[in-house]
Each structure stands twice: as C-alpha cells, then as structure tokens.
Write a structure and sequence with these properties.
This protein is mainly beta. The protein has 1 helix and 5 strands. The strands form 2 sheets. Strands 2-1-5 form a 3-stranded antiparallel β-sheet, with no helix packed on it. The chain has a two-stranded antiparallel sheet with strand order 3-4.
Length: 93
C-alpha cells in the first residue's frame, strides 16, 4: 500500500503517504473478528481516546496485481517523532 512504515521500537506503525510503499501481509477474515482486533489494537470504544491507531479501509496492491480495499490499522499520532523504515518492510529494517 502507499504509505510510510514507522519504527516505534517494538512494533511498526503505518502512516498513509504518497511518498512511499509498505510491504505487508493480507488476510481474509470474518467481519466479526474486527471487534476483537480493535480491542487488541486498543482502538475500540473500550479504550480512552486519543487512540494510537485507527482502523480504515485502504487500497492495497496484491502480489498477483489487483488492487483491493483492506482494513488497515493506521497510526493516529504525529509521525515525525519516529524513524522511517525506508524499505517499507518491517522484516527488512
């Protein structure tokens, strides 16, 4: 997907931008699982705002070529305080 991958230390964060590309994994899940994932990412109504992440539908390009809309947890804070992972790939940092 288009964006910048940030290094938050123990985990990455995605920030939407036209200035980069992010490598990731795409999973097909049941919609009912989204509420559980929101709790895991601490961005559900059970957690006080402002949340560190927000879930949004974003266009992603698949390895086989087509573009799909996928739910992505986007970083919901100022990105400037964190290092950018230039490769866009958390495993290649």
């Amino acid at each position: 997907m288009r964006g910048v991958l940030l290094d938050l230390g123990d985990y990455p964060a995605v920030y939407v931008s036209d200035n980069g590309a992010i490598v990731g994994e795409l999973y097909r899940i049941e919609a009912a699982l989204l509420a559980t994932l929101d709790d895991f990412e601490e961005c559900s109504v059970a957690f006080p705002e402002p949340h560190e992440y927000r879930r949004a539908l974003c266009p992603v390009v698949t390895a086989s070529g087509p573009t799909l809309d996928a739910w992505v947890y986007l970083y919901n804070r100022a990105p400037e305080a964190h290092a950018v992972i230039a490769s866009g790939d958390w495993l290649q940092r």
